[in-house]
């Protein structure tokens, strides 16, 4: 079967959904498991989101009509909300607490909602905008980027930003 960036992105959504399900099954005593799962979620989600923002969304925007532009704006705003508020709030909670469980649940709900919108709207539009060859090429480019030192550096920087609390921490400390 030919490679297709839209299939890869959808598969990654499903993998992350599965990880959130596993977090839901943990108790407040499962501190180590929660920390490991959050780490796994970030390792999967951050490169996915950054590549969408830097490559896929701009390519989509270039060919989008009025409706597509709105979809693009909506997706980007959701990324920003998760990056600047939802993830930092998870990090501000102690993993062995109901606060952590609650915030992680919200994180999972945001991601699921966003992923659904991409799958139902954006990817549907993208299937019309990009040829099979273009989608296969994007898929190869994405795989190569994920394995690059650039992607690794970005992940380290983004994770440390999330762990230090981002905008949400600043707001709470005021
Ligand atoms: Fe996204
Ligand atoms: Fe996505």
From TrEMBL:
<protein>
    <submittedName>
        <fullName>Hemerythrin HHE cation binding protein</fullName>
    </submittedName>
</protein>
<dbReference type="InterPro" id="IPR012312">
    <property type="entry name" value="Hemerythrin-like"/>
</dbReference>
<feature type="domain" description="Hemerythrin-like">
    <location>
        <begin position="5"/>
        <end position="126"/>
    </location>
</feature>
<dbReference type="Pfam" id="PF01814">
    <property type="entry name" value="Hemerythrin"/>
</dbReference>
């Amino acid at each position: 079967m030919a490679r297709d960036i839209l299939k890869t992105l959808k598969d990654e959504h499903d993998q992350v959904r599965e990880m959130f399900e596993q977090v839901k099954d943990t108790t407040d005593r499962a501190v180590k498991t929660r920390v490991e799962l959050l780490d796994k979620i970030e390792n999967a989600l951050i490169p996915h989101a950054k590549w969408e923002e830097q490559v896929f969304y701009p390519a989509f925007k270039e060919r989008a009509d009025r409706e597509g532009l709105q979809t693009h704006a909506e997706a980007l705003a959701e990324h920003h909300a998760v990056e600047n508020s939802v993830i930092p709030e998870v990090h501000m909670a102690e993993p062995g607490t109901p606060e952590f469980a609650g915030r992680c649940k919200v994180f999972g709900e945001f991601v699921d909602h966003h992923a659904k919108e991409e799958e139902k709207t954006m990817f549907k539009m993208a299937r019309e905008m990009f040829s099979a060859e273009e989608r296969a090429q994007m898929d190869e480019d994405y795989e190569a980027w994920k394995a690059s030192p650039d992607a690794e550096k970005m992940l380290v920087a983004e994770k440390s930003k999330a762990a230090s609390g981002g905008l949400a921490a600043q707001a709470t400390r005021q």
